[in-house]
Fold this protein.
Amino acid sequence: MTETALGGGAIAASTSLNNPKVAAAVRIGLAWLIFSALLALAFSLHETPGRGAAASLSLLIGVALGVIFQRGRFCFFCIMRDFIEHRNSSGMFAILSALAVGGIGYAIVFGAFMPNPSGGGLPPDAHIGPVSWVLVAGGVAFGVGMALSGACISGHLYRLGEGYARAPFALFGSLLGFGVGFFTWHTLYTEAIATAPIAWLPKTLGYGGSLAVHLAALSALACLLLRYLPELPPQAGGKITWQKLYRTVFVTRWNPLVTGALVGLVGVFAYFRVAPLGVTSQLGSLTRTALSSAGLLADHLPGLDALAGCAARAGHAITNNGLLIGGLVAGSLAIALFTNRFRLSRLTLRGALTALLGGALMGWGAMVSLGCTVGTLLSGISAFAISGWVFGGAVFAGVWLGIKLRLPE
Amino acid sequence: MAFRRLVTLFALAILIASSFAAPSLRARADLPESAVVSTEWLAARLDDPKVRVVEVSVVPGLFERGHIPGAVNFVWHTDLVDPVIRDIVSPEAFQKLARAAGINNDTTVVLYGDNNNWFAAWGAWIFAVYGHEDVRLLDGGRAKWERENRPLSVRPASYPEGNFTAKPARREIRAFLSDVLAVVKGEAEGAILDVRSPAEYEGRIFAPEGFQELAIRAGHIPTAVNVPWGRAVKEDGTFKSVEELRQLYASVGIDGSKKVYVYCRIGERSSHTWFVLSRILGYDVAQYDGSWTEWGNTVGVPIKNPAGTVWGRQ
């Protein structure tokens, strides 16, 4: 068997271990070890009293996301930057594809969970949030934070697995930002969020109508973005062989449409079995617990516990969301090792500080917007929430602003 | 021939084995089936059009992510209380809700839910207030059904509109502050039963752990005795036997000779005890759903606070 067949080890010589064959074996062995450990953990969580299937599934969903994000480079910042700076829209199609598949899936699940959408209630735990200027401010801050720190929160999580050295600083910064968010929450809630409309398309249009509008809007965006799609390399025809299949899955970057569709599918599975996808509730609850136990924050934040989203309650234990985040980082690390994409990046003081500051901006934005690019944008738009579109637009504006201000440099 | 003999032997073995298993398939003999049904009983009647299963759970999304096949969902916060006035659901709204669930006047309604059937028992009490005769609880609630690995479904059930007619509210099973105050003052006969935890009863805490404080006085209604609701169930959440229950309440002087008034914090736990005393033991019981959040906040009503805590100076 060739090295390539073991894990795309053609560039393995650049690993610190001198013998490329040994290096590849160590790398691939580690990857297998991580995957096996994750699987064993999923099994044991399932059997743990008080945890069960939801915990085990959360971990596995995280692993799936880690693999998909890494292989498909599903990084909101990279995608938006490619478009804004290089006029390359191919990554944007991954987002559109995720939203299209997510919308179809959510419509199906909603129909089972809540057959009549016009009755006044909202489907359980779906990320449908209040729309106010706070959401816009949160989105813009989040976008600027992405530009400053080099990725969004989910991006930092999976890039942590790739060895991106700024990621820990950005994630720590987001914890600080969450803290600031909790302190500003009371004012923002009473000033704007409490009376803001929680707009949900199916309430007026039904599920069918909402899905039609949803897909039409995504198609319109796709048409606009089509002219920015770079020319594709010529594709070789012929029979599908094992080598070809291996290359497609483990060597070449995944097609954006496929990556997006998989993200959308995982999102639907997550909503159906556990909760809508989100990657910040564990970060928020960590901060909140720390602040509450230090006596700095009131135990009760008005309105927050009643709104669906990623700003979780204070709690000591690792939540299902924590398992998802852990799975995401570990899954990305394992697949990066397996495919030889793990590179410990160089860290400068400037890089660390901007990551910290950008992370703080993202933390504040995610807290007041009740989620990030995954929780509010992806899970929100898939759930036909107007809040998802508003947040998405604001994030894009923030990233655009950040790039125009040359923050990423 | 040998094969045939083997088959006969095998069939005989199954017959003997099943006769041993049979007792567990029957309803529990120590509880009235007209009030409490076992999971086996319900599993055998899921397709019976005369039986309607209703889930009342407090955790959002629980019903939606899987419920007993064919069950309908009643939401405590919006369906079983008035969303504006502090009151139980109006008769018109409840009639509409029950009819939409395909409930007729002669339907056997089986309620179940999370949290040890607390809110399902509230549902049973509301059915009783509006005069529905045949209301039962699933023994052990949702937890037991899940523990036994019985099937759950995510498909919404839909039934043709029922003809349930809400009768005028039965005042004798619902108590207001004035009714309880009359007992405290000795103007009416009755026994008052507090089903909260001893710490709440004695006034050591203002609200159970994890709950927001909703009353500015701690303690209990004078003359009330304390039997926490949970003492009516076994460790697995199923009800204790009639004899055990009778003894449990008799030990604090609640024996059915006087009318009983039950209360807790907002009326959810006391619904459970109301069900035990009225439907299982057959006592004359009224639930005081205003409970401690009304009593402990009302100006001028007497309270008893053995712990002597003062609000705001904990």
About this structure: The beta strands of chain B are 36-37, 51-55, 72-73, 108-112, 135-138, 174-175, 191-194, 225-226, 260-263, 285-288.
